[in-house]
Amino acid sequence: MATVATDASGISESQNAAAAEDGRDVVFSVRDLWKVFGPKAERVPGDASLTGLSADEVRERTGCTPAVREVSFDVHKGEVFVVMGLSGSGKSTLVRCLTRLIEPTGGKLEIDGEDVLAMDKSALRDLRRHRASMVFQHFGLLPHRTVLDNVAYGLEIQGMGKAERRARAQEMVDKVGLSGLEKRRPGQLSGGQQQRVGLARALAVDPEVLLFDEPFSALDPLIRRDMQEEVVRLHREEGRTMVFITHDLSEALLLGDRIALMRDGEIVQLGTPEEIVGSPADDYVRDFVRDVPREQVLTVRRAMRPAEAGEADEGPALAPDTLVGHAIEAVARSGGAARVVENGRCLGVVDHACLLNVVAGIEREEVAA
Ligand SMILES: Nc1ncnc2c1ncn2[C@@H]1O[C@H](COP(=O)(O)OP(=O)(O)OP(=O)(O)O)[C@@H](O)[C@H]1O
Ligand SMILES: [Mg+2]
């Protein structure tokens, strides 16, 4: 078996190199990050007799809670990086560690190549005020201030003059669809509107990264849907980098370019929605994604089979990232196979059987066997 050089985090050098070659800039780089709560927490990460144990076992032996355990990942510029997991899996702790609202117990953490763990107070303040803005679940608005002044708050503590910050805040209020409500106080707004204020406030400082900790979980489903679409729109229009925490799988699949699935403080799988749903890393992940409508996540690139004689030249053409759900329609209409075409080249074909197998969760290798 070929061995791959890895750094301490288990991420291979070739993977790191690949990210650099892609020209994808890394915003946050996280390596072997630990957060342990409890007495003498710093001894836990370095203790090899503890690192292999489950969170419960560590708690029994040491009285400490390992909330984040040896977590490594990169957040690339312009992506929506989702952290998903059940309650207590360590999501909030992880995202708070990124700006040291919670102090990590061990590991490495960089933003744009700068060592976050080495930052002094004033550099940290700058990080939180200008570079990474957080949107919280419970809005965190100032009750006695108007909408406009809440949105302007971050600019005010940056020291921006009144006229300028109000003009900028107005722009953000308009952007998130709250025009006309500038003079209201938070208590006079619905939950969805309050969260739009929270979003506008985070956007006002024009941060490099937006950090969301379950921002929509207090909202009812229809308003939640609205807010999700708002985030998708903002991301599409501005390409802003986002780290988005949720325990809601459909939200993760809708928003995430990549998803890190956490369990007991560890990342059990990190991949695109299609990778997570199509190739779950273990039974835990498989169970998590079991009820996902696969045809709405998986693409024909995964479903296709090699073209047989003549097939490469006829039938409807589909792009490789066409969802299986859409391909079903095309294949049903044409009655035969459809071609998967990229840059004029036929990569393969999808017919009734391939598409049905994907929906049923049967992999091609299983069919062949
Ligand atoms: N200040 C603290 N002291 C001790 N333990 C803590 C502290 N904060 C969090 N924990 C523990 O760390 C673990 C991870 O908590 P965290 O809040 O990060 O989970 P979460 O994934 O955000 O959960 P939720 O979905 O409920 O918000 C939990 O076991 C929690 O009890
Ligand atoms: Mg949380």
UniProtKB/TrEMBL annotation:
List the Gene Ontology MF annotations in alphabetical order.
Answer: ATP binding
UniProt cross-references to Gene3D superfamilies, sorted A to Z: P-loop containing nucleotide triphosphate hydrolases (3.40.50.300)
**Keyword Nucleotide-binding applies:** yes
Which keywords fit this entry according to its UniProt record?
Answer: ATP-binding, Nucleotide-binding, Transport
Among InterPro entries, the record links this protein to: AAA+_ATPase, ABC_osmolyte_uptake_ATP-bind, ABC_transporter-like_ATP-bd, ABC_transporter-like_CS, Gly-betaine_transp_ATP-bd, P-loop_NTPase
**Protein family (similarity comment):** Belongs to the ABC transporter superfamily.
Q: What is this protein identified as?
A: Glycine betaine/L-proline ABC transporter ATP-binding protein
Q: What is the lineage of its organism?
A: Bacteria, Bacillati, Actinomycetota, Actinomycetes, Kitasatosporales
